[in-house]
Amino acid sequence: MKQRRKVALPRYGEYNCVLKYIVEQGFEARCILPPPLSRRTEDLGARNSPDLVCTPFKTTLGSMIEALEAGADTIIMVLGACRLNYFGELQEQILRDMGFEFEFINLSLYNTGNVKDILRALKAINPRCSMVKAARAVYDAAKMVEHLDDTTSAYYQNCGFDSTGTYPKIYRKFIADMYAAQSLADIREGYRAACEGFGSVTLAKPADPIRIGIIGDYYTVMDPFSNLELEQKLADMGVEVHRLMNITNDMLRGGGKNKQAKIREYSEYSMGASSTADIWQAQNFAERGFDGVIQVKSAGCMPETDIMPVLANLSREYRMPILYLTYDSQTSDVGLMTRLEAFYDMVEMRKKVNR
Amino acid sequence: MSRQNAFLGIDVGSISTKAVIIDENNAILAQEYIWTEGNPIGAVKKLLALLEKQFDPASWQIVGVGATGSARRLVGAMVGATVVKNEITAHAVGTTTFHPEVRTILEIGGQDSKIILVENGIAVDYAMNTLCAAGTGAFLSSQARRLGIEVEEMGQYALQSAHPTMIAARCTVFAESDLVHKIQMGHPREDIIAGVCRAVANNYINNVGKGKKICSPVVFQGGVSKNVGVVRAFEDLLGCPVIVDDNGHLMGAMGAAILARRSLNRTQFDFSVKNMEFVTRERNCGGCSNNCEVICVYRNGRLIDFWGNRCERGAARTDETTA
Fold first, then answer.
1. DSSP secondary structure code for residue B321 in this structure
2. How sure is the predictor about A99, in pLDDT bands with cuts at 50, 70 and 90?
3. How do residues A273-294 score in pLDDT, each as one tens digit?
4. What is the set of domains in chain B, with CATH numbers?
5. Do residue B124 and residue A315 have CB atoms under 8 angstroms apart?
6. Residue B75: its H or E element
7. For B122, which of A41, A326, A350 is closest by C-beta distance?
């Protein structure tokens, strides 16, 4: 009998637990978790990548290398709405040139808009497994994504006001539960425990806290390592941090229907990838009276660069400051802290004066 | 008679180190401006020695110390600062105190440049250069060296030019090769210098100032504001007068001192800091593959502060010594 496949997805925030669930519960294969992203990941990725490609390419390539080193024999690469769609092909070639032997499942080759095609692609993990079982696991996994995103949102909106240090513990326990989950009941139980835990903490939150919204490119904005833990840094300053950009909002709940029509005043056509969603989200934050918005992007990200003038118009009309951050594979967060502290000081002073 | 309260503000930038001592009414009691020369600790010691000579300890006592600039953390630990603030806030606070009517602050320093928009005395928007140091003081210094003049003289040369040479302003590397080409083509030196000044202003407006509405009154500060050629270039570009405060180069330090005055934290600052031995050590944590570079600061051989670690594993023990 052929051995079970060892499947890996490059690290992407905490979403690897979702793939782990699908692979292990749905396809009865093993999931290899690449080591947490580190400087080594970035170095490996940068060394083997085209120089001017965006940082997410380098980071995911580095993580693939580390997954193969950890024993994976099958790599999955996701699809996307920008040049990310071509990443898989190039990364596969680079890894083969480096001498790795592995199976590559490139989801962008199945980018038809039909979930069934994605399932068909994943079937390569274990051709003999039951598709009913796999479909059920994908359904459970969708629940996991929702719970993961909801818990993460709740965490960053509130952890800055928890002086007891309980919030991070609950959040870490929840993440560990998701990685360990073997059934929908496990997923639900983990979520319930997290909700209950968060609910039991007394927060020292003012009636009108500083609220900052985060927008940005799919990878950098959702991956704490890549954005140098921007959300945690802001929360630690005592900010309610909101991020609408996550898989739940973008893929499962539609993230606000007819976004393009809603932002027509600012941009009539989509500029690709996360551009429409970002403009809509920034407008949403502005209408809800947020104190500021931070745009997070990888250097050379075309859609995110293209929307900057649109964001500038929005910022002017709603009188809401927007901070533009560009990330490359840097490791020092000194420059980031300078900008964040200044942004915080500014919105805080504005709030005091306008109150 | 008891001594009156005074406040020290120190701004340690990449190129220059600035400090002021002010009283409760923001009047300057002592001020100094020296080069950092890649040695922030040494620069601060030297600076303190110079300030001490201007300072009258019989009638004043320093009860608050503010540190700002890119070395604020290090210097803050060194002098026991009561306030450690980023340079953007410090500049905004300093400038709005002396120019309450200001709407736009242009700031070009050695390695960075920023723009701060102000309404009714508070900052409402700002931007800072992110990836590239094009169009900053460092660019001017290196071009002055190439042209064989002192950076301080550039402005005067630029004013003599009637036909500034066009120099590509997009990027320092391109600007430099464009400049070399123009020199070799025989353009007069003052035209080239005026072109460089214009390139700096252009680059600033196109990069840092992109999408920002620049309203008058405009205050220009940072080391580069001492270059009248760049001031003139900004006035031409913006079509309005550009104010350069005589103390513009000290605004970051002023802001830090004012923030120290406003803060409730109090200290008893002692100039003897300048005689103490400060050592920094970098070490790689090695606890995981992040290999955090942890910086440890020692005063007279004893650890007083450390940073750079992402988690507790990289924390230094407070009883550590250099020995």
1. B
2. very high
3. 889 999 999 999 999 999 999 9
4. 4-91+253-275 (3.30.420.40), 100-244 (3.30.420.40), 278-314 (no CATH)
5. no
6. helix B72-79
7. A350
Angstrom distance (rounded) from CA A331 to CA A336: 10
d(CA B216, CA A131): 68
Instruction: Answer whether B86 sits within 8 Å of A353, measured CB to CB.
Output: no
pTM for the predicted model, two decimal places: 0.87
Amino acid in the structure at residue B272: S
Task: Report the gap between the CA of B142 and the closest CA in chain A (Å).
Answer: 23
Which residues neighbour A328 within 8 Å (Cβ) at sequence distance 6 or greater?
Answer: A55, A298, A299, B131
Sequence length of chain A is 355
Tens digits of pLDDT across chain B (323 residues): 578 999 999 999 888 899 999 999 999 999 999 998 889 999 999 999 999 999 999 999 999 999 999 889 999 999 999 999 999 999 999 999 999 999 999 999 888 889 999 988 888 888 888 656 667 888 888 888 888 899 889 999 999 998 999 887 667 777 788 888 888 999 999 999 999 999 889 888 888 888 888 999 999 998 899 999 999 999 999 999 999 999 888 999 999 999 999 999 999 998 988 888 888 888 888 888 777 888 888 888 888 888 888 777 878 776 666 65
- Compare CB distances from A326 to B122, B123, B130 and report the shortest one's residue: B130
A30: helix, coil or strand?
strand
- Set of chain A residues whose Cβ sits within 8 Å of the Cβ of B120: 353
| Residue A89, burial from CB neighbour count under 10 angstroms (0-12, 13-18, 19+) | middle
Residues of A in contact with B291 (CB under 8 A): 38-40
* Three-class DSSP category at A68: helix
Consecutive H or E run containing A154: helix A131-158
At what angle are helices B189-206 and B137-147 packed, to 10 degrees? 170
